[in-house]
């Protein structure tokens, strides 16, 4: 989210991104240049007492949470974790050249398709030995998300979070709104909010990934999990009538979305929910990072995206899962394996969650007693889901998502007419991209 998001951590403004790209482009992430050992003549890189980690956790909250984990790990193991933090978006854009160069021992990444993509390219080391130690900590859905197409493990999940519709309890109480469970109720609520002079759905798509989440929800609610997965994997066609139906449904609620979305960041959109100018906001639970006032945080609640087709109900939950992978030729493999085993422990998750209460543990063994009501609800929503998706830019090829889907959805948001030609164009480009290795 993404990001993207999905990860979904905050992304820089385009100006900063262009700036970073301008400063020696790939060198920012060290394509072919060892990130920290470049100046030290490789001193730290092969030190048996040091494990290097390439991190995309550039936001203050997750950055501190990871630092706390590494400090605890050092106490326990005597190993120092040397972290290279890069801006979240830049890390994502340059991951390919980074992994082909001389990457760190361990790197932050995403579960599911995104992990499988690099595992299949031989840019990661299988970690079945790590899983022998940690497998009892995770439910089957998480194990599935951590395996490559070859059936080997390549990923240690740390935390996860659902996407849902967020709202302020006090606003719903004051206006007498009910949580909608069906599409018709949802549209009716949007109309009522508009009458009440609220922006029904806060929306900011300046960084182009939030809209991917809106499409996902509508598509798997209208067409089911299996079709959604096939579409993401390039197997179903974007000109299929089912996809057209999803866009028609979106066009129906687009007028209730905050105007000028392509010029607004997700953080600014979150502020309109915080200031009670907007009634609802579809995002991951990381939206809570923007609610810095305790009273506002306690007023925040969420509900699952409403049912569209009773055959699929609200079975699917979009729950991006973040964690770690082992690079292709780690300099300190023994130390890296020790770190990964620690990261797969309930102790590591509990430390992370103390600093970042906007997500929930991927492990079923982590202590949930300190969870806020919002976290408890998120945890129940994920553990109760029939199917979990990871978010469009993680469930599909990253190059397809960034070069085709992000601009296409921004075009649709600015002008929802001409859906058919837009879908033909997406399908044409999809065929080209998925045909390449």
Q: What is the CATH domain class of the largest domain?
A: Alpha Beta
Largest sheet, if any?
A: 6 strands, mixed
Strand content: 5-15%
Number of strands: 12
Organism: Streptomyces dysideae
Protein name: Sugar ABC transporter substrate-binding protein
Description:
By secondary structure, this protein is of the alpha/beta class. The protein has 2 domains: 14-160 and 321-389, D-Maltodextrin-Binding Protein, domain 2, CATH 3.40.190.10; 163-318, D-Maltodextrin-Binding Protein, domain 2, CATH 3.40.190. The protein is built from 20 helices and 12 strands. The strands form 3 sheets. It has a 6-stranded mixed beta sheet with strand order 2-1-3-10-4-11, with helices on both faces. It has a 4-stranded mixed beta sheet with strand order 6-7-5-8. It has a two-stranded parallel sheet with strand order 9-12. The longest helix has 18 residues, at 60-77.
Which features characterize this protein?
single chain, 437 residues, alpha/beta, D-Maltodextrin-Binding Protein, domain 2, 6-stranded mixed sheet, 4-stranded mixed sheet, 47% helix, disordered N terminus
């Amino acid at each position: 989210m993404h990001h993207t998001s999905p990860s979904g951590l905050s992304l820089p403004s385009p100006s900063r991104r262009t700036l970073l790209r301008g400063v020696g482009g790939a060198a920012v992430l060290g394509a072919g240049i060892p990130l920290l050992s470049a100046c030290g003549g490789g001193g730290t890189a092969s030190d048996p007492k040091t494990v290097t980690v390439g991190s995309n956790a550039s936001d203050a909250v997750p950055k501190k949470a990871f630092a706390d984990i590494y400090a605890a790990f050092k106490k326990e193991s005597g190993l120092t974790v040397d972290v290279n933090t890069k801006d979240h978006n830049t890390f994502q854009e340059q991951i390919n050249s980074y992994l082909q160069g001389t990457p760190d021992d361990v790197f932050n990444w995403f579960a599911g398709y995104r992990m499988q993509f690099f595992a299949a390219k031989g840019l990661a080391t299988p970690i079945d030995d790590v899983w022998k130690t940690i497998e009892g900590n995770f439910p089957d859905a998480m194990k599935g998300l951590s395996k490559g197409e070859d059936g080997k493990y390549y990923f240690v999940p740390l935390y996860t979070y659902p996407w849902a519709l967020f709202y302020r309890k006090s606003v719903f109480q004051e206006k007498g709104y009910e949580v909608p469970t069906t599409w018709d109720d949802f549209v009716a609520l949007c109309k009522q909010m508009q009458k009440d002079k609220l922006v029904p759905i806060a929306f900011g798509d300046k960084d182009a990934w939030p809209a991917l989440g809106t499409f996902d929800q509508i598509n798997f609610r209208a067409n089911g999990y299996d079709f959604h997965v096939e579409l993401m994997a390039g197997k179903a066609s974007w000109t299929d009538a089912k996809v057209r139906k999803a866009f028609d449904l979106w066009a129906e609620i687009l007028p209730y979305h905050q105007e000028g979305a392509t010029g607004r960041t997700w953080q600014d959109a979150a502020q309109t929910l915080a200031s009670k100018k907007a009634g609802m906001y579809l995002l991951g639970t990381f939206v809570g990072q923007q609610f810095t006032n305790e009273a506002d945080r306690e007023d925040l609640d969420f509900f699952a995206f409403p049912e569209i087709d009773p055959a699929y109900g609200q079975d699917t939950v979009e729950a991006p899962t973040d964690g770690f992978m082992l690079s292709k030729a780690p300099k300190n493999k023994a130390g890296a394996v020790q770190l990964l085993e620690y990261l797969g422990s309930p102790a590591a998750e509990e430390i992370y969650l103390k600093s970042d209460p906007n997500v929930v543990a991927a492990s079923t063994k982590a202590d949930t007693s300190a969870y806020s009501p919002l976290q408890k609800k998120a945890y129940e929503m994920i553990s109760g889901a029939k199917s979990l998706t990871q978010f469009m830019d993680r469930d599909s090829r990253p190059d397809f998502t960034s070069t085709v889907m992000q601009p296409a959805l921004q075009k649709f948001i600015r002008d929802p007419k001409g859906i058919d030609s837009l879908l033909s164009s997406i399908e044409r480009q999809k065929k080209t991209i998925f045909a390449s290795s």
